[in-house]
Amino acid sequence: MAYAHTNKKGQTYVLHSKMVTLRGGRQQTIFFFAREEREGALAQVPDGYMVVENAKTGLPMLKRIPSDK
């Protein structure tokens, strides 16, 4: 079961991850939300992240949880 987030407008988005290659050749994992479940859907929010919504559009985003130092 993929992680789904319903925003303030009642729209449901599913969390996904994908490995991409940056211009310098470095590999990096990106996280994104999509309306339908696709390949790469995640079952839960990654450790160290939380879901927040854009105040104007209601689009969900992942934000790092600040670490206590």
Strand fraction band? 35-45%
Order of H and E elements: EEEEE
Q: Portion of residues in helices?
A: under 10%
Tell me about the biggest sheet? 3 strands, antiparallel
Looking across the biggest beta sheet, what order are the strands in?
1-2-3
User: Radius of gyration from the CA trace?
Assistant: 13 Å
Provide a count of the helices.
Answer: 0
- Number of beta strands: 5
Low-confidence stretches: none
Distance between the termini: 35 Å
User: What's the pLDDT, averaged over the residues?
Assistant: 94
Tell me what you see in this structure.
Helix content is 0%, strand content 45%. By secondary structure, it is mostly beta strands. It has one domain. The strands form 2 sheets. Strands 1-2-3 form a 3-stranded antiparallel β-sheet, with no helix packed on it. Strands 4-5 form a two-stranded antiparallel ribbon. The radius of gyration is 13 Å and the shape is globular. The relative contact order is 0.27. The mean pLDDT is 94.
Features:
69 residues, mainly beta, two-stranded antiparallel sheet
Structural topology:
Blueprint: E1 4-6, E2 12-21, E3 27-34, E4 49-53, E5 60-64
Antiparallel strand pairs: 1-2, 2-3, 4-5
Short description:
The chain has 69 residues and is an all-beta fold.
